[in-house]
Amino acid sequence: MQSNDSVRHFLDEGLITGVIRPVKSGKEASVVLCRANTSTTGLELAALKLYHPLDRRDFRDESVYRDGEWIKERRIRVALEKKTRFGREVQGAIWVSREWEMLRTLSDAGADVPTPIAMTDDAILMSYVGDVDVAAPQLQRYRPDRDEAQQLFEQIMKNVERMLYVNVIHGDLSSFNVLVWQGRATVIDLPQAVDPRKNRHANGLLERDVERICEHFARFGVRSNAHRIAHDLWTAWQFADLVPEELRGSIEF
Fold first, then answer.
1. Are 203 and 222 in contact, with CB atoms under 8 Å apart?
2. What is the pTM of this model?
3. What residues contact residue 216 under an 8 Å CB cut-off, 6+ apart?
4. What is the CA radius of gyration of the chain?
5. pLDDT of 242 above 70
6. Any idea what DSSP says for residue 52?
């Protein structure tokens, strides 16, 4: 299903009433702003993430992220390993479905992520961050003052903690996949997220996520110890000692 077909699908399903404008275009997907059907979605605006056709996607080496996942059918396993065209098709479908499942899990858990609305084989319709004129900027492009930087840093780290509480590690968290709007941070781009109960690289991925965020905010005067934060989060998760923020704020940032 190509992008125009995906747009038509959501129009036919009564979830959107039209496309307003493109928001961004990346290596793997583009995002367009849509006018949502308020009666079916409860929203006025929605973001439609359209994954590019196979020959335009930049498929990274997924071996680290797929570690611990078992695909029963041998034909599919071999195709993924050899990166055949069929394997790429399977990989593309996995990429979309994984992001959909992560958005559902984290949205239900109260994490600051876009709310998923519906999906197709190559597109996800979700809540939009921004207004009709301006999309929320990436954290990388945002210039907060010292106080706001501290608040945003704490918000993001509490989201990392909340994600870990429901056995999710982003795996590629950085200032490029956090949006900032009206003083709030929203974490995006989750297809590579991993389950720490299954993935042997989970601790290292968590450390990298935390280090990237700490390094970014250090430029704005936020002092932190990435190693200690990651260690405390991982230890708390190992001993089932993570509790949602509203019940206990155990990790000091």
1. no
2. 0.86
3. 139, 140, 174, 175
4. 19
5. yes
6. P
- pLDDT tens by residue, 175-226: 999 999 999 999 999 999 999 999 999 999 999 999 999 999 999 999 999 9
DSSP helix, strand, coil percent of the chain (3-state; round to 5): 45, 20, 40
Q: What residue ranges do the domains of the chain occupy?
A: 3-58+94-127, 139-238
Six-digit token pair at 236?
């708390």
Q: 3-58+94-127 belongs to which homologous superfamily?
A: Phosphorylase Kinase; domain 1 (3.30.200.20)
Architecture of domain 139-238: Orthogonal Bundle (1.10)
Selection from 58, 55, 34 nearest residue 126 by Cα: 34
- Residue for token pair 């290292």: 204
Helices 226-238 and 146-165, packing angle to 10 deg: 30
What does the pLDDT average to over 112-123? 96
- For the segment 36-45, what is each residue's pLDDT rounded down to a tens digit? 999 999 999 9
95 contacts: CB under 8 Å, gap ≥ 6: 28, 51, 191
What average pLDDT does the structure give for the chain? 87
